[in-house]
């Protein structure tokens, strides 16, 4: 199914507004379910560069991420940046899968293989991240068939 939003009469005005350097925050009302994802996907696909889409909580961000991957047809242009923690920073219980996803996102950003969409939530953004140098120094690349000690 083709995304209907690019043919809407207000679509060019919205994308121009998003592209303007003086306006950084846009508020959209009256959209429910996956219609938010479809509209944002249509708008941001028209614009160059990486776009951070920020949500209040992990659940809302995860649903939006899934919608974007489905709409785009490929997870290559869409990155998810989760918190390192299982539930909350206050419990200090890290989640290995989240740490791996977070590291992969940072690596893709540092390599400039940036996706068009980076989806995250406030809790994930307040965590400290390693520098590009630290990430490079602590990364061990292993290739299939390679023998290591």
Characteristics:
149 residues, mainly alpha, elongated, 6 helices, three-stranded parallel sheet
Give the SSE layout:
Layout: H1 11-19, H2 35-46, E1 51-55, H3 58-72, E2 78-81, H4 96-110, E3 117-121, H5 122-125, H6 132-137
Parallel strand pairs: 1-3, 2-3
Helix pairs in contact: 2-3
In DSSP terms (H or I, runs of 4 or more residues), the helix count works out at: 6
Structural class: mainly alpha
Main sheet characteristics? 3 strands, parallel
Shape: elongated
Give the H and E element order.
HHEHEHEHH
SS strand fraction: 5-15%
Mean pLDDT: 80
- Give the termini separation: 51 Å
Compute the CA-based radius of gyration: 18 Å
Oligomer: single chain
Extended strand count: 3
With strands numbered from the N-terminus, the spatial order across the biggest sheet is: 1-3-2
Binned, the helix content reads: 40-55%
Stretches where pLDDT is under 50 for at least 5 consecutive residues are none
Describe the 3D structure.
By secondary structure, the chain is mostly helical. Helix content is 41%, strand content 9%. It has six helices and three strands; from the N terminus they run H-H-E-H-E-H-E-H-H. A three-stranded parallel sheet has the order 1-3-2. Helix 4 links the parallel strand 2 (78-81) and strand 3 (117-121). The radius of gyration is 18 Å and the shape is elongated. The protein starts with 10 loop residues before the first helix and ends in a 12-residue tail after the last helix. The model has no long low-confidence stretch (mean pLDDT 80).
């Amino acid at each position: 199914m083709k995304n209907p939003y690019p043919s809407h009469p207000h679509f060019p005005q919205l994308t121009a507004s998003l592209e303007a350097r003086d306006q950084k925050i846009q508020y959209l009302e009256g959209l429910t379910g996956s219609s938010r994802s479809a509209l944002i996907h249509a708008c941001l696909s028209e614009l160059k560069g990486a776009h951070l889409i920020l949500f209040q909580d992990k659940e809302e961000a995860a649903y939006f991420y899934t919608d974007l991957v489905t709409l785009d047809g490929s997870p290559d242009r869409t990155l998810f940046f989760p918190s390192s923690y299982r539930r909350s920073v206050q419990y200090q219980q890290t989640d290995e899968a989240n740490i791996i996803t977070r590291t992969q996102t940072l690596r893709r950003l540092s390599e400039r293989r940036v996706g068009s969409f980076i989806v995250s939530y406030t809790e994930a953004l307040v965590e400290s991240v390693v520098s590009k140098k630290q990430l490079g120094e602590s990364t061990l690349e292993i290739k299939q068939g390679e023998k290591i000690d």
